[in-house]
Design brief:
Helices cover 65% and strands 2% of the residues. The relative contact order is 0.09. It has a two-stranded antiparallel sheet with strand order 1-2.
């Protein structure tokens, strides 16, 4: 239901004048849930035969235009649009792939692929069948980072019950295979801080993309207890960017997603200028 019967009238007025009243737009969109914004969008289409987001693009500019359009997109539509746009931008494609793909679970990867296909149907209708998300991501990446993206997009992480085992132990995070946890801890150390020079990315990628969230949380705690330093420290010391950032993002998304999003939001605003696309994406996805 539309929160206010005058919403559509306000919107029509705002979008039909040369100098749109941003205060009115803020008042309406800033106090509506996504379902209410969707109702406004549908009613606007019915009354005026125009897509409200596209009409907005004719009167608003810059980041404000991007923000308002994003408020009318579904969650995975937001992610897919940002991925498509980000992978076309030289210098920022690795960061956008990290921020989005490394934070998705199996179900979210599936939905992201579908949403990306919808974006391609609109942006590249002639070639969208030959350009699934995997193809574009692998084309834009290389080395160990490319391997990490490839494994994540397969969506083969174990479920959050028991990691394919018959011997399980209850923990504060759920049931996990204690022997497998101990084995993973040893392997991660041997592939990182336990060897000279750079770490072995294949071990980290294999474990961090296949084990369940509960299992990884238990590995994180057990690693710290056994070796006296955090797994994130090992990653930071033994790997270089963009893999280092991607592995740490993946790990922290499994350990504490709220903390990760807080850090991402802070980094988007830190220093000179700001990463408006990142700020808009995080706020619009999490505002409810």
């Amino acid at each position: 239901m539309i929160h206010n019967n005058n919403d559509r009238l306000y919107k029509f007025y705002v979008l039909s004048v040369t100098a749109p009243d941003q205060d009115v737009i803020n008042e309406i969109l800033g106090h509506r849930s996504f379902q209410q914004r969707l109702a406004i969008q549908q009613e606007y289409k019915r009354l005026y035969n125009k897509e409200i987001a596209e009409h907005i693009g004719t009167v608003l500019v810059g980041s404000y235009d991007s923000l308002v359009k994003t408020l009318f997109r579904k969650p995975f539509e937001i992610l897919a649009n940002d991925l498509y746009k980000g992978m076309k931008t030289i210098g920022s494609n690795y960061q956008i792939m990290t921020d989005i793909i490394c934070c998705c679970n199996n179900a979210e990867i599936y939905l992201l692929k579908k949403a990306y296909n919808d974006v391609l149907m609109k942006e590249d209708p002639k070639n969208y069948r030959q350009r699934p998300l995997q193809t574009d991501v692998l084309q834009e990446s290389k080395g160990a980072f490319r391997l990490l993206m490839e494994q994540l997009l397969k969506g083969e992480r174990c479920g959050d019950d028991i990691d394919g085992c018959t011997i399980s132990t209850p923990t504060s995070y759920g049931y996990v295979n204690r022997k497998l946890v101990d084995d993973d801890v040893r392997e991660l150390y041997a592939a990182g801080m336990g060897q000279e020079g750079k770490g072995d990315p294949s071990i980290y990628i294999s474990i961090l993309t296949k084990r369940s969230k509960y299992h990884i949380r238990e590995v994180y705690e057990a690693y710290h207890k056994k070796y006296g330093h955090l797994l994130t420290e090992s990653i930071s010391r033994k790997f270089s960017n963009p893999l280092r950032n991607a592995l740490n993002t993946l790990l922290m998304a499994l350990i504490d997603l709220r903390l990760l999003l807080t850090c991402q939001l802070y980094c988007s605003m830190e220093g000179l200028g700001s990463n408006d696309d990142s700020i808009i994406r995080i706020i619009c996805l999490r505002c409810e």
